[in-house]
Design a protein that fits this description.
alpha/beta, 4-stranded parallel sheet, about 40% helix
Length: about 140
């Protein structure tokens, strides 16, 4: 495969005589404006999350910002929004959903059941980046 024939979400690395293909995950990023948090602050935080996502080796395909008075105890974003995002996950061929806010283990598990893909929060994403860099050293 020549460099002009790269597939969707793939970039080519060449190490000596061996071609290595790196497949980047497709990510949907979710942020919330909870309570008094302004939309501008939430948007800045999502922009930073997109940069972290790129560093972790994934492409931010879609970014969603939801305004809520308070987080939902079961799904963080509410059942209706979770169902709506499930359709986006399928339509956009998403591999991972990344939340800007910290999720409880129960919320993460509930969302993974709804989306049928991996769900991580900002803290887990940052820990993954550190683990990747530690393994490469």
């Amino acid at each position: 495969m020549s460099s002009g024939q790269q597939g969707r979400g793939r970039r080519r690395l060449t190490a000596s005589e061996v071609d290595l293909e790196v497949i980047r995950q497709r990510a949907l990023l979710v942020g919330t404006g909870i309570g008094t948090r302004s939309v501008e602050v939430a948007e800045e935080s999502l922009a930073e999350l997109a940069r972290l996502t790129d560093t972790a080796g994934a492409d931010a395909v879609e970014i969603v910002l939801q305004r809520r008075d308070h987080p939902d105890s079961r799904t963080y974003i509410g059942k209706g929004k979770a169902e709506e995002l499930r359709e986006s996950v399928k339509a956009l061929d998403i591999d991972v959903v990344i939340f800007d806010d910290e999720l409880s283990p129960a919320q993460q598990r509930n969302l993974e059941k709804i989306f049928e893909v991996d769900v991580v929060d900002r803290v887990a994403l940052i820990l993954d980046i550190f683990a990747q860099h530690a393994a490469s050293q």
